[in-house]
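[stage:ingest] chain + small molecule (2-acetamido-2-deoxy-beta-D-glucopyranose)
[stage:ingest] validated
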Amino acid sequence: MWSLVLFLVLGLFGSKISVEAANCTIQAKGNSKFPNDFTFGVATSAYQIEGGWNADGKGLSIWDEYTHNYPDRIKDRSNGDSSAESYRLFDLDLKALKDLGVNQYRFSIAWTRIFPIGHVHLKNQKGIDYYNSVIDKLLANGIEPIVTMYHWDMPVDLQKFGGFSNSQIVEHFSNYAEELFKLFGDRVKIWITLNEPHKICKEGYGLAESPPLIAASGVGDYICYTNLLKAHGATYRLYKEKFAKEQKGKVGISLDCRFYFSKTNNTDDIDRAMQYTLGLLAHPIFSKTGDFPAIVLKEIEKSSLEIEGRKKSRLPSLGEYWTNIIKGSADFMGVNYYTSRYVTPSTEPLGENPSMERDQNYQLDVDPNWPRANADWMYCVPEGLENLLKYIRDEYDNVEVKITENGWPDSGEINDDERINYFKSHIQAVLNAVNDGCNTTAYSAWSLIDNFEWNQGYTMKFGLFSVDMRSAKKERTPKKSALLYKKIIETKSVPDSV
Ligand SMILES: *[C@@H]1O[C@H](CO)[C@@H](O)[C@H](O)[C@H]1NC(C)=O
Ligand SMILES: *[C@@H]1O[C@H](CO)[C@@H](O)[C@H](O)[C@H]1NC(C)=O
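[stage:predict] done
[stage:export] tokens:
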């Protein structure tokens, strides 16, 4: 019966989607083993795990301020003040990492732990000591550090002046990055400048869903993208000029993206949606021509000038100078993938005028067969990940991709069979893509431990290890998925059973 339904669904939706989505699985294609140099790891971020929000001279970030000032905005009125306390208890994380046998650990540095007010002339040695100790312990155990410089925790003292809406952030961020290269670059060889620019700009500077709570969709978000891309590009050039020769590391950026399917198998619709999402960040950095995608520039300029009567586009071109700095400014693309959608162009204008929604002007929906998590946005769509990697292969000259996040939320069950299905199907999707010539070299699961899930507080869990947030010891207990992942890392293949 199911296969009949699937057959119909597949027939209707086109041949690209060759999966049995109904039970969160995907068909294996090609080699059953990853190449030997493919690496596996896990990811976390500072605000979500460290705690110690004001310990030892740390300054305030916008997430400290936001959770303290607006507890109502967090589902369980919680915050990251203590969280899993990795600042105090990193050795527990280290033990969990060793138990899994990971090749790499992706974590982020809290800007305000090292530079309490964001400016680099005021250093906090205790913060530096902490990250030195994390990095040294990882290396002593054969675990490669992947370091994210910015995972959403802007120093409050820089946000006062607009954060990513002030172009001065370019200088502040590259000064900060330069100090990180000096402090840790002798040992850290894989850097990620910024995590999930879409979330930063769309939710923080467009929809006011997260700090700095700016409601200016279609304007503020685009200003944010522009300054953020410049900060990234300037940082990359700085590394190449001053550090790359000696330190021999790689610098990339982690982009969050869904794949967009089309019910009518219309590749123009798919591509347009991809350009309005992944392309806004990836095209300036990874395309041959640089700058924002032509279709996006053209459409937003048209709306701005002809419909809204503005003097200038809400999303101006980056200009020749910045286009050249930003073009090619990454040694790899970090990809954070969680789920996918179907896209249908809207015949009526959508959303407020102006807004990013109106600019995009497409309707999003899901396949009723996609299994849903305990989050309204989250569906298991492994073929979306395979298609996304193939899209990147074809669109961006097969740039090296490191999957820097991929994971499944639940309520914290130890027997987390849904997460197991999610990891099995998604890691298989990555293997399918690798077998099909995609230049994907690394995979990091989100997340090592249960942690503070932003506006969802502690109600939504992504960890391979459970953490009892109420106990002082904060022990890390492996879930069933940790055993699966350990086996995947050991065998570099996806087992049939755990
Ligand atoms: C869907 O598009 C792909 C190319 O992207 C093509 O190979 C396939 O035949 C199309 N399927 C249908 C049902 O039109
Ligand atoms: C994969 O990416 C690396 C680093 O960017 C590059 O040197 C290599 O040529 C790419 N491989 C393929 C098959 O394109």
